[in-house]
């Protein structure tokens, strides 16, 4: 009797070995996300800090099994077991350490804002490109399945039409301690202030809504709020496109918590009130009105808006690191190339942010963007 040979099973994927370069609070969230991934996806091989004791405490407090503590950033980058680096350092330190990581062949997951200006970001991206490593920023909501569902609806020309107006508001009421001590209000650490922090999300949400078409010009709003050191605490801007589209955003450390975005199309309206951090970790809501009209004699609306709820097994930060890990494994194990869309949309976000900052610095003069 003949018998067919059992099919050869492919070997399980080798996990991507991460190094965490810096022990910022946001690194705890990303560490937790890495621990939530399915087996074979990723492991934290090392944590680097300016103090080995601090790195050791971080490893213990975040429950990272087997992660080696390093007492310097250089030591972590010299760890040959580290394949990819998550870098949550202050923005002023991104260029030296992000380029150092990429130059050593480490794939780079870089905290936002990615740089103080587009020229600095270009230096980072050029090093990633030369080394053939994957780059991605940490705009987490992009990876939420709710975002994909919203894209599906906005792309429906029959139900939504063309996007014409966008409003975005991201802010939170910072404590007095934050306003005096946080790195995001220090000119030598994160000189972009609120614009680089939650303003980054406003700009990304606007670009996402128009499929990353850069505006023709931006004009910052008058009277931005700054601290005594000149760092932005609240600001906003309006973006203009040649076809008449407009987008307005405000970002603030001085308002009640808000991550609110509204898209107005020629046939539909989409409204989400918790874009950046959903109210609940594993579900996200938004509402859509389509082909709205009045109930005669102007006593109501018809049809009423539709509420959508999108669930997810993994929170958005875990989906982000899962996608980054998949791309790294494709490069390492299958000879693939780095995915270019991630650095491209990061750079567009940075270019618009630069234009807004320039308009603020010039007293709200219009700033034209190169095509």
UniProtKB/TrEMBL annotation:
GO terms for molecular function: nucleotide binding. Signal peptide: none annotated. It comes from Dichanthelium oligosanthes. Residues 148-270 form the GFO/IDH/MocA-like oxidoreductase domain. It comes from the Eukaryota. This is Putative oxidoreductase. Pfam families: GFO_IDH_MocA, GFO_IDH_MocA_C3. Residues 16-136 form the Gfo/Idh/MocA-like oxidoreductase N-terminal domain. Gene3D superfamilies: Dihydrodipicolinate Reductase, domain 2, NAD(P)-binding Rossmann-like Domain. Belongs to the Gfo/Idh/MocA family.
């Amino acid at each position: 009797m003949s018998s067919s040979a059992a099919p050869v099973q492919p070997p399980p994927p080798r996990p991507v070995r991460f190094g965490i370069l810096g022990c910022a609070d946001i690194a705890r969230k990303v560490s937790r996300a890495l621990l939530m991934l399915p087996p074979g996806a990723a492991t934290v091989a090392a944590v680097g800090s300016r103090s080995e004791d601090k790195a050791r405490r971080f490893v213990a407090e975040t429950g990272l099994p087997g992660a080696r503590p390093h007492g310097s950033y250089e030591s972590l980058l010299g760890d040959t077991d580290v394949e990819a680096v998550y870098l949550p350092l202050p923005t002023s330190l991104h260029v030296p350490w992000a380029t150092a990581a990429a130059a050593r062949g480490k794939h780079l997951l870089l905290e936002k804002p990615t740089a103080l200006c587009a020229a600095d970001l270009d230096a980072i991206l050029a090093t990633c490109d030369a080394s053939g490593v994957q780059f991605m920023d940490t705009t987490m909501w992009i990876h939420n399945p709710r975002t994909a569902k919203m894209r599906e609806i906005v792309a429906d020309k029959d139900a939504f039409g063309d996007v014409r107006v966008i409003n975005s508001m991201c802010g939170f009421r910072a404590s007095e301690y934050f306003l005096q001590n946080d790195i995001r209000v220090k000119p030598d650490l994160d000189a972009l202030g609120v614009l680089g922090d939650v303003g980054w999300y406003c700009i990304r949400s606007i670009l996402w809504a128009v499929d990353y078409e850069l505006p023709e010009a931006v004009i910052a709003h008058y009277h931005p709020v700054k601290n005594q050191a000149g760092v932005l605490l609240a600001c906003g801007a309006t973006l203009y496109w040649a076809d008449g589209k407009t987008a307005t955003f405000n970002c603030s450390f001085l308002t009640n918590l808000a991550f609110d975005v509204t898209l107005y199309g020629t046939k539909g309206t989409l409204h989400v009130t918790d874009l950046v951090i959903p109210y609940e970790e594993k579900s996200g809501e938004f509402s859509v009105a389509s082909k709205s009209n009045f109930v005669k004699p102007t006593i109501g609306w018809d049809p009423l808006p539709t509420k959508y709820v999108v669930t997810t097994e993994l929170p958005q930060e875990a989906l982000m690191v899962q996608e980054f890990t998949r791309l790294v494994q494709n490069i390492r194990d299958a000879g693939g190339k780095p995915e270019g869309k991630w650095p491209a949309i990061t750079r567009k976000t940075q270019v618009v942010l630069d234009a807004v900052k320039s308009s603020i610095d010039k007293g709200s003069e219009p700033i034209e963007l190169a095509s």
